[in-house]
């Protein structure tokens, strides 16, 4: 008869005496190797830490937490900690990081969102502050890493806030890249098999796409942290230039938005760079800045789109693509004010805008969790996490993101606090 397994995939908690007897002949290093192979679920290490003082000492050591976070810190099961943004004013201007569970005054709500991870994200030590790089521009967030571009656009920074790591890298070399060009970038894990990544989980790649506005020619570069070198991967002409919205990774393909009417697609394996036209039926003046790449329910590496106009959400799936043409299927239409609790909500007064400014949209898709296909939807009542397949939702923030065009979700298991992990304490 097999051993019992808990709902999170962890072994059930054993009596402390029996566990200590079984581990008596094992060194702390061997125990650490065993615990490193636990499923990446927040409850697993907590259960281990409650077995005995020895187990707790092993799994709360800085060395172990660094290794476990290297392996699993950006895993799909990691919880949402909060959002990075490029908004430089308001109560979170000092860090440009907004933890989950914050209301319009900057304090945490009295709910389950008021957790240790939210408290640690707001701690005076500034674990998630950008520090000396506060003027840098956040352009990507994935796998526990944050990617930033310098104000001069001549350097990039790969920041791992939970581990205290930062690596500065130069922008792609001239003459291929110019700071005056439109550009965007993404950080992804290093290439290689499972064993290689286990041995060197700290390695990463940066994919940088630069668009020449005059020629409409886009060029993709790949930086490998193992070799400390850039490689020119591909170049092609497109109908427009890349914009500043975050990338989305679907399968082995990175996607960005073009400024108008298209997507940029870069395959991490083949290094193919190409343009995909968006569905014409989902594009008008309102949709111009409210179109977002999503992960369709069908999966299989297929790209999807969410288009929002007023309170109407359209979800599209790319069915067929050839160079210069694409076919999209409309798979769902959702009335968001009927789905979300907006009709009877007490909404704050709208901000005063210049007469020449466009009115703020009623609903805005600010970010996507590509692992869970969860869209973070801004409304005047707050920010909601909406699972785009089931349409289940919950509120993650009050209306503190007013004026922000988009944000970068940050997920991690660990928030160091007092020398140990907040999720274990």
Automatic annotation (TrEMBL):
InterPro entries: AT5G49610-like_b-prop, F-box-like_dom_sf, F-box_dom
Top-level taxon of origin: Eukaryota
Domain F-box: start-end pairs: 26-68
Protein name listed in UniProt: F-box domain-containing protein
